[in-house]
Specification:
The protein has 235 residues and is mainly α. The protein contains 12 helices and no strands.
Length: 235
C-alpha cells in the first residue's frame, strides 16, 4: 500500500523526468499514434522501467495529456498530429495551461523571474530538493521548446546545473588520467577510452556496478609499476 501511495504522490508532481526521455516518448507517440490507454503493457512495449513509469504518467497527467484512467486526451492527439510551428503553438497552450500560476499570477513574470521565485512555486506543488531542481530543468526545457520566453536568470542556473552534472562524469576520468601519467604507461589510456562514461540517468544498480568497476580500474592504475623507457645504445 505504501508503494501505491508513493506512486500516486509522484504522479501529482510537476514533470521531473529528463527532457531527453520526454522527447523520445513524443517521438514514439508521433510515429505510432497514442494508445487507447497508457497501461503496463504499453510501457512494456516501450521498455520503460517500472521506476520511470510513474514519472512518465505524472508528466502526462500534469500536462493534461492523459486522463486519470490512462486514456489520452484530445490535447495529446493534437500535439502529436502536427509538426513545426503548429506543434510549438500547441505545446505553448499546453505549457501555459499546466503551469498556469506561473503565467497568471500578477506578481510573477516568467521572463524576468529569479530561481527563488520559481522554486517557491514548485515547493507549493510538493516538489522540493533534488526533485524540485529536476522540475525546474524540465520546465525550462519544455518552455524553450515551445518558444516561451523565460528569464535569463533561470537559463544561467540550469546551465550551471548541467555543467555540475557533467563534471561528475569528467572528474573520475581526470583522476584516472593523472594516474596514467604517473605510471608513464600510455597503454592504460587506450584502455580508459573503452571505459563507458558515467550516466546519471542510469538505474541505481547500474551506477553501483560502474563505480565498482571504476575503483577496480583506478586501483590497477595506481598499483601498476611504471614502464621503464630504455634508451637506445650508442653504436
Amino acid at each position: 500500500m505504501q508503494g501505491k501511495e508513493q506512486r500516486l504522490t509522484e504522479e501529482r508532481l510537476p514533470p521531473y523526468l529528463s527532457f531527453k526521455a520526454w522527447q523520445k516518448l513524443l517521438g514514439e507517440l508521433s510515429a505510432n499514434n497514442p494508445p487507447s490507454r497508457f497501461d503496463s503493457s504499453y510501457f512494456d512495449t516501450l521498455k520503460i522501467t517500472k521506476s520511470h513509469r510513474s514519472m512518465v504518467r505524472g508528466a502526462l497527467l500534469f500536462l493534461g495529456l492523459m486522463l486519470s484512467d490512462g486514456r489520452p486526451t484530445p490535447k495529446l492527439h493534437q500535439l502529436v498530429r502536427v509538426e513545426g510551428e503548429a506543434r510549438k503553438a500547441a505545446l505553448t497552450d499546453i505549457v501555459r495551461s499546466a503551469y498556469a500560476p506561473l503565467f497568471t499570477d500578477k506578481n510573477m513574470d516568467v521572463s524576468r523571474a529569479t530561481r527563488a521565485q520559481i522554486k517557491e512555486y514548485f515547493d507549493s506543488q510538493g516538489a522540493s530538493g533534488d526533485i524540485g531542481r529536476k522540475c525546474l530543468t524540465f520546465f525550462c526545457a519544455v518552455a524553450n521548446d515551445a518558444n516561451i520566453p523565460i528569464s535569463p536568470h533561470l537559463k544561467r542556473t540550469t546551465a550551471r546545473g548541467r555543467k555540475k552534472k557533467n563534471s561528475v562524469d569528467e572528474v573520475p576520468r581526470q583522476r584516472v588520467s593523472k594516474s596514467v601519467q604517473s605510471n608513464g604507461d600510455m597503454a592504460w589510456e587506450k584502455l580508459l577510452e573503452k571505459f563507458p562514461s558515467f550516466n546519471p540517468e542510469w538505474q541505481d544498480d547500474v551506477k553501483i556496478k560502474w563505480f565498482d568497476a571504476f575503483k577496480f580500474l583506478k586501483k590497477m592504475l595506481e598499483t601498476s609499476p611504471p614502464r621503464r623507457r630504455t634508451s637506445a645504445k650508442r653504436r
